[in-house]
């Protein structure tokens, strides 16, 4: 039987895996890493991250939202971004790294990837700062300022990456940046190529040049039209790929260059009235349609959790069942 | 290119910084305000169709709608009091328990561009609030309910059924990522649209 890591490599390299990769089993995410870009507040609370963005998780909701009313919005005018946007320091006191280093030292790197997490990503941060509508329009109306802002964020990300690499020597990067809705990419491929591709080539290139073997990018959306750019920027695995992307077709077309992780939409299975039967149907459909290579079955959720208790584990059970049926 | 054609092209291209001057020049050149407005509505219809066909993306639609809005600002004083262009009032909101507003905002813009007077109730709107808004506003001809989350599909149903119970003849259109035409029919909605571009087309059909 292959180890977890060997099985992952056989899957993404088109070799001979002996089972389906089971969601996040191959990643040990070091959540203790100093992360000023706080992922989200707890349910019913709000935080202000170190970029000054207020992120609120209203009671009864299944996720958090940046707040963009007049009182809270950070970037009020893209043409004056320098006045409003101040990147936080990446120089943390050494004691801030202690817990993360202890966690890293406890990981069996033969079995799992020591993984660092970055969220939100470059595109997300632009609209966290100024709202989605203003952020999207700025690509067209103030392209020079957007280029400058993206360069500024990219520079910050690379300085942060250097700190993480120096302290933790991670094997994998799990990087969030949602690039689309469920049915289309937010921006056109041409706009993506002009603004985000260069930024991510720098960021992912830096991680890879400094010992990070695996780049996993999370975008639980449609983004099939961006896959050639994902390959170019160095993504090894696209996590969160939704069924609206026609994943079997993507695997056929690009599988040798990038692996697809998902094809099970969280919105369909991770519900208050979830059932094992519905999860089984969705997992079986994904596994049978997408096959054994260049594919990892899993919910589109961007962490090893589910919105409703028991769903994540139920998916694991059904992946095991599909391994028994197909391997 | 005539002035009116220039206005049309500027809306389609989303040139919001140039549109006001172009509309004013068209007026100065003798074009009727109504014709200029019609040209802009036609542009937005093209933009909506291109979005539905996947030829353009959300930002292009946003800047086109912003341009039209700025053009309309110039026409308003000229057309003051003329309500013949209005297709009627549309009440719109994202249903209870759902805080997603981007799709809803796009639909508001597209319907406004198509000629509806829009009342935007915002997000997390309880079913009863749609009914109150119908009572509080004049000439309401359409209610549009949006929902992005699978978990808020029951709230979408409640919104449609509450509106229909109070105003059986009121047209209701629904949309949002998890909504299907079948679900829309099942919950009693009159119309369904998969995206903001086709929402404008469907809304016009429903009130015709």
Question: What is the topological layout?
Answer:
The complex is a heterodimer of chains A (327) and B (208).
Chain A: H1 4-12, E1 27-29, E2 46-48, E3 54-56, E4 65-66, H2 81-84, H3 98-105, E5 113-118, H4 122-130, H5 132-141, H6 143-168, E6 172-176, H7 189-209, E7 214-218, H8 227-233, E8 237-241, H9 247-254, E9 259-264, H10 266-269, H11 276-290, E10 295-299, H12 311-326
Chain B: H1 3-13, H2 16-28, H3 33-52, H4 58-79, E1 89-94, H5 102-114, E2 117-120, H6 127-136, E3 140-146, H7 153-166, E4 171-175, H8 181-186, E5 191-192, H9 196-207
Parallel strand pairs in B: 1-2, 1-3, 3-4, 4-5
Helix pairs in contact in B: 1-2, 1-3, 1-4, 2-4, 3-4, 3-9, 4-5, 5-9, 6-7
InterPro entries (chain A): Methanogen_methyltrans, UROD/MetE-like_sf, Uroporphyrinogen_deCOase
GO molecular function, one term (chain A): uroporphyrinogen decarboxylase activity
Protein name (chain A): Uroporphyrinogen decarboxylase
What does this entry look like structurally?
The complex is a heterodimer of chains A (327) and B (208). Chain A is an alpha/beta fold and 327 residues long. Chain A has one domain: TIM Barrel (Alpha-Beta Barrel), CATH 3.20.20. Chain A has twelve helices and ten strands. Chain A has helices at residues 4-12, 81-84, 98-105, 122-130, 132-141, 143-168, 189-209, 227-233, 247-254, 266-269, 276-290, 311-326; strands at 27-29, 46-48, 54-56, 65-66, 113-118, 172-176, 214-218, 237-241, 259-264, 295-299. In chain A, helix 7 links the parallel strand 6 and strand 7. Chain A is globular. The mean pLDDT of chain A is 95. In chain B, helix 7 (153-166) links the parallel strand 3 (140-146) and strand 4. Chain B has two domains: 3-79, Orthogonal Bundle (Methyltransferase, Methionine Synthase (B12-binding Domains), Chain A, domain 1), CATH 1.10.1240; 89-207, 3-Layer(aba) Sandwich (Rossmann fold), CATH 3.40.50. Chain B contains nine helices and five strands. Chain B has 208 residues and is α/β, with parallel strands linked by helices. In chain B, helix 1 (3-13) packs parallel to helix 3 (33-52) and helix 3 (33-52) crosses helix 9. The mean pLDDT of chain B is 92. The longest helix of chain B has 22 residues, at 58-79. The interface between A and B is medium-sized, with 25 and 24 residues. Chain B: Residues 87-208 form the B12-binding domain. Chain B: Residues 1-87 form the B12-binding N-terminal domain. Chain B: This is Cobalamin-binding protein. Chain B: Keywords: Cobalt, Metal-binding.
């Amino acid at each position: 039987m292959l180890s977890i890591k060997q099985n992952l490599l056989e899957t993404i390299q088109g070799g001979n895996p002996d089972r389906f990769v089971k969601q996040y089993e191959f990643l040990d995410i070091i959540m203790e890493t100093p992360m000023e870009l706080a992922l989200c507040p707890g349910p019913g609370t709000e935080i202000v991250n170190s970029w000054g963005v207020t992120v609120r998780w209203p009671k009864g909701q299944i996720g958090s939202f940046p707040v963009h009313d007049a009182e809270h919005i950070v970037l009020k005018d893209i043409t004056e971004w320098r006045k409003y946007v101040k990147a936080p320091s990446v120089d943390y006191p050494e004691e801030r790294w202690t817990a993360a280093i202890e966690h890293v030292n406890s990981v069996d790197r033969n079995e799992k990837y020591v993984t660092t997490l970055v969220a939100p990503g470059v595109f997300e941060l632009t609209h966290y700062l100024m709202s989605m509508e203003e952020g999207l329009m700025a690509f067209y109306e103030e392209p020079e300022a957007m280029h400058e802002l993206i360069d500024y964020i990219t520079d910050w990300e690379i300085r942060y990456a250097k700190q993480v690499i120096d302290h933790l020597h991670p094997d994998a990067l799990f990087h969030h940046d949602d690039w689309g809705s469920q049915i289309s990419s937010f921006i056109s491929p041409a706009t993506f190529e002009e603004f985000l591709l260069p930024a991510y080539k720098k960021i992912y290139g830096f991680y890879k040049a400094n010992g990070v073997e695996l780049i996993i990018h999370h975008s639980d959306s449609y983004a099939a039209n961006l896959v050639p750019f994902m390959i170019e920027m160095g993504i090894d695995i696209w996590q969160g790929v939704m069924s609206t992307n026609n994943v079997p077709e993507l695997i056929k077309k690009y599988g040798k260059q990038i692996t697809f992780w998902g094809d099970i939409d969280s919105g369909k299975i991770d519900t208050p009235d979830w059932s094992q039967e519905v999860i089984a149907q969705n997992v079986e459909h994904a596994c049978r349609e997408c096959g054994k290579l260049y594919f990892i079955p899993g919910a589109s959720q961007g962490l090893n959790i589910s919105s409703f208790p028991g769903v994540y584990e139920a998916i694991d059970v059904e992946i095991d069942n599909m391994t028994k049926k197909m391997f | 290119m005539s002035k009116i054609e220039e206005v049309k092209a500027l809306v389609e291209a989303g040139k919001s910084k140039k549109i006001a001057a172009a509309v004013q020049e068209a007026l100065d050149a003798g074009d009727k305000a109504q014709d200029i407005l019609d040209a802009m509505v036609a542009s937005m219809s093209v933009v909506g169709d291109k979005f539905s066909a996947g030829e353009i993306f959300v930002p292009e639609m946003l800047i086109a709608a912003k341009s039209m809005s700025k053009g309309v600002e110039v026409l308003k004083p000229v057309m003051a009091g003329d309500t013949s262009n209005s297709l009627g009032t549309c009440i719109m909101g994202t249903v209870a328990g759902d805080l997603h507003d981007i799709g809803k905002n796009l639909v508001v813009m597209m319907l406004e561009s198509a000629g509806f007077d829009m009342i935007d109730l915002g997000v997390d709107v309880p079913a009863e609030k749609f009914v109150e808004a119908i009572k509080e506003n004049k000439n309401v001809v359409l209610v549009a309910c949006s929902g992005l989350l699978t978990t808020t599909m029951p709230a979408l149903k409640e919104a449609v059924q509450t509106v229909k119970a109070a105003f059986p003849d009121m047209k209701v259109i629904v949309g949002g990522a998890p909504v299907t035409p079948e679900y829309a029919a099942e919950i009693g909605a009159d119309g369904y649209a998969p995206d903001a571009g086709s929402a404008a087309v469907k809304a016009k059909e429903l009130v015709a």
